[in-house]
Specification:
Blueprint: H1 7-14, H2 22-29, E1 32-35, E2 48-55, E3 58-65, H3 71-77, H4 84-99, E4 104-110, H5 117-121, H6 124-137, E5 142-151, H7 152-156, E6 163-167, E7 171-173, H8 177-185, H9 191-198, H10 202-207, E8 213-215, H11 227-245, H12 249-261
Parallel strand pairs: 3-4, 4-5, 5-6, 5-7, 6-8
Antiparallel strand pairs: 1-2, 2-3
C-alpha cells in the first residue's frame, strides 16, 4: 500500500463497506468456529460475535465487532456499534476462556459503542468500564487485532490486551476525526485535518509504541484477496501463543499491566 496515503485516506479505507469483517477473518484464519450467543442478562447483540475456535489442535476464544455490508446486515449488526449486552456477552466469553485456559483473540472494528438512549438506560458506560477492569486481570493471554475502525471506548473495551496489532489501513483513536474536529474547531468538515493531528494510523501508533505490530495490506483489501493477510495473521497468532505458552498466569497479568503503565 502506498506510503503517500494521508491519514484521512486511511480513515476512508478503514470504513470501506467491502472491507473484510471479523467473521471473514475468523473464517479465513481458524480451522473451525462455533458461535455462542447472548449475555444471559438481556439479549444477543449482533454487533459482537464470539465463540470457540481452533487452529490445528490449539483452542481459542474469539470475539469480534461485526459490521454489515448492506442495509439489512447493518440493521442486524447495528452498524458495528455494540450495546451493553454485546460487551457483557464478550466478557462472559472471556471469563469462560479463563476458566478453560484458552487464549483470547479479539477483532476490533467499530466506530464506537452505540450511544442511543436505550443503551445508556441499560448501562453502556458500566459495561465498557467492567470490561476494562476484568480484562486487566484475566489470567490467559489476550491479543487484540484492529482490522478496520477502532473507535473510542467502544474499541478499547476489547483492547486491554497483552499485545495490540493493526492492519496497515486500520485506525485506532479516542473518537472519530469528525467528532474531534467538532470539539476542537467547532467544524466537523475539518475532519481530514483532525485525522492528521490525532495520529490514528497504524504507523503512527507503532512509532509511539502503542501497538506492537502492523500487517501490510493487499490493495484494495477485500474478501476476495483476504487469504494473504489472513495467513500472516494466523502465523502471528501461532507465534503469539507459543511466546506465552511457558509463562505463568501471574506473568501474563503482570506483562499486560506493565504494557499499559508504560504508555
Amino acid at each position: 500500500m502506498s506510503s503517500e496515503l494521508t491519514a484521512w485516506d486511511r480513515v476512508q479505507i478503514a470504513r470501506g463497506k467491502e472491507r473484510p469483517t471479523s467473521l471473514d477473518y475468523i473464517g479465513a484464519i481458524f480451522n473451525k468456529f462455533m458461535e455462542l450467543h447472548g449475555d444471559r442478562l438481556c439479549r444477543d447483540d449482533g454487533a459482537i460475535v464470539g465463540g470457540l475456535a481452533a487452529i490445528d489442535d490449539v483452542s481459542f476464544t474469539v470475539i469480534g465487532q461485526q459490521k454489515g455490508r448492506n442495509l439489512k446486515e447493518n440493521k442486524k449488526r447495528n452498524y458495528g456499534m455494540p450495546c451493553p449486552e454485546g460487551y457483557r456477552k464478550a466478557l462472559r466469553l472471556m471469563k469462560q476462556a479463563e476458566k478453560f485456559n484458552r487464549p483470547i483473540i479479539c477483532f476490533i472494528d467499530t466506530p464506537g459503542a452505540y450511544c442511543g438512549i436505550e443503551a445508556e438506560e441499560r448501562g453502556q458506560g458500566e459495561a465498557i468500564a467492567r470490561n476494562l477492569f476484568e480484562m486487566s486481570g484475566l489470567k490467559v493471554p489476550i491479543l487484540s487485532i484492529v482490522i478496520g475502525e477502532g473507535g473510542s471506548g467502544g474499541a478499547l473495551a476489547l483492547g486491554v490486551s497483552n499485545e495490540v496489532w493493526m492492519l496497515e489501513n486500520s485506525t485506532y483513536s479516542i473518537l472519530s476525526p469528525e467528532g474531534f474536529a467538532s470539539i476542537l474547531w467547532k467544524d466537523s468538515k475539518r475532519a481530514n485535518e483532525a485525522a492528521e493531528v490525532m495520529k490514528i494510523t497504524a504507523d503512527d501508533l507503532k512509532n509511539m509504541k502503542i501497538i506492537e505490530h502492523v500487517f501490510p495490506e493487499t490493495e484494495p483489501l477485500c474478501v476476495e484477496n483476504i487469504d494473504m493477510v489472513a495467513a500472516s495473521i494466523r502465523d502471528g497468532i501461532i507465534a503469539f501463543v507459543t511466546r506465552y505458552k511457558e509463562k505463568s498466569k501471574e506473568e501474563i497479568v503482570a506483562e499486560r499491566y506493565k504494557r499499559f503503565r508504560n504508555m
